[in-house]
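Good morning C.,

I know you're traveling, so I'll keep this short. The sequence:
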Amino acid sequence: MLSATGTGKKRTIPALLDSPICRVTVAQGRDTTKLTEISRLAPQVRVTTDLQEFALWKDDYDIVYVASPPFLHTEQVRFALSLEKPIVCEKPLVANRDDLGEMTALLRDSVKPVMVAHHLRHQPVVGKLQEILKEEQLGPVSSAALQWSFWLNHEAPSATWKLDPRRGGSNAMFDAGVHALDLALCLFGVPGRISALGARRREVERLDTVSAHLGYDHSIVTIMASQAGSTDANDLVINFAEGAVKVPAMFGERSARTLEIHSNDGRLEETFSPVNLYGAEVEDFCRHLQGESLIGTSIRDGLESARILFAIEDALSDSAGDT
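The tokens, ready to paste straight into the viewer:
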């Protein structure tokens, strides 16, 4: 794992401690204190601050997980590809449009599998949603709404880059919102039209609340992303011609537990067992390397997501989206 001292230390390494499928064996980072904490948490993990030492130990791992912030992704993906290993890369692939061309070229030429770490796809409720959509159980889709809002701690270490538009993206869609965008691609495909509005509630440079509208042939999908709001309405709602589906608390770090189906026949509710999403995304990638279908976000979808992020950025600029 590259740059393991952030989300890797907080989420992925703990999630894989008891995995029967895979484990973290090597962790690289710049913060020696946090690397020491990783060693205490997982004594079997070899830690280093040196990229060349990480490369020398490549016989000790089968996959490279790029766990860095997006402004480091291009150089670290280039380095990971030089090790000739499959790659998992944190989201979004890039947050600066100047990096998109090089990242696209790097991944286009890769002969090894690469997955983008969007954890929401790795849970049973997504399979159920895909089934409802494919079979048109409630008729065709007319609209959908996906929201991920939270209150960003401006004092947190990660805020130093998240609040910098040159490193973390120009608006909230580059952070939590990109997970909702990825799920929209998973469920509805690539949109033909994009518009957006944004607001500044707590920030001066960045738009910390954004609403993006994805237009399809006969439906509209709205994605709301905010770093200045409550988590209480982080739900998914899909309206069909003959009913509606709602997944409460779809967007967050924990897996969704219920799915509601509303129709003329009344209200049905299906429940799901909890899943550690940060462990499941890596385990699913390992299964893919062993021959199973890819459940996670492909490079095609990851790059499409990046292109849509910049289209949203353009739409915000065109609409003077700072009202």
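Safe travels,
E.
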